[in-house]
């Protein structure tokens, strides 16, 4: 199983910016914890971070046919990006959206996630542990999707030699 982890703007500044909101962990530390958990469960992770909306859209589109699911923290683009929402809808992969802070306890403009409408589920407010929760949820969802797809495959008749 292969999962793309896509990180949005300013997440490269974790551990430096607004520690009272996002905590002291860096993005690299979060990714290291995710890798350790993924390896234990036979999951391959591909990490990507960009501060540019178009690059995130491109990366989502590249996921089509190459990964089984997407774990995304669109960060500030969550609240504004129809382009990212449309890209997620277009690839139609199981997607879990993660937010380190509880967006529903923050400013009003942060309480609406445009991109959530194209996500299978959203995890918000659990700090960096939300990534672990998202990874568990996504691996379960992908496993269920694969099981259903395998059940729907027509049986091939036995070959005679």
TrEMBL record:
Site (Transition state stabilizer): 17
Positions annotated as active site in the UniProt record: 22, 99
PROSITE patterns per the UniProt record, alphabetical: DEHYDROQUINASE_II
GO biological process: amino acid biosynthetic process; aromatic amino acid family biosynthetic process; chorismate biosynthetic process; quinate catabolic process
Chain positions recorded as substrate binding sites: 73, 79, 86, 100-101, 110
Domain of life: Bacteria
General function of this protein: Catalyzes a trans-dehydration via an enolate intermediate.
Protein's name in the database: 3-dehydroquinate dehydratase
Lineage, broadest ranks: Bacteria, Pseudomonadati, Campylobacterota, Epsilonproteobacteria, Campylobacterales
Gene name of the encoded protein: aroQ
């Amino acid at each position: 199983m292969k999962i793309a982890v896509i990180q949005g703007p300013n997440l490269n500044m974790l551990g430096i910016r607004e520690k009272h909101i996002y905590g002291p962990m860096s993005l690299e530390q979060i990714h290291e914890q995710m890798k350790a958990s993924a390896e234990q469960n036979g999951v391959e992770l591909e990490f990507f971070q960009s501060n540019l909306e178009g690059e995130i859209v491109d990366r989502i589109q590249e996921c089509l046919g190459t990964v089984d699911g997407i774990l995304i923290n669109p960060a500030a683009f969550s609240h504004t990006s129809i382009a990212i929402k449309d890209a997620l809808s277009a690839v139609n992969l199981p997607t879990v959206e993660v937010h380190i802070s509880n967006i529903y306890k923050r400013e009003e403009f942060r309480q609406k996630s445009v991109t959530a409408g194209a996500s299978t589920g959203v995890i918000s407010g659990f700090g960096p542990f939300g990534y672990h929760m998202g990874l568990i949820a996504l691996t379960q969802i992908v496993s269920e999707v694969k099981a259903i797809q395998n059940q729907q495959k027509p049986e091939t008749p036995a070959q005679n030699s």
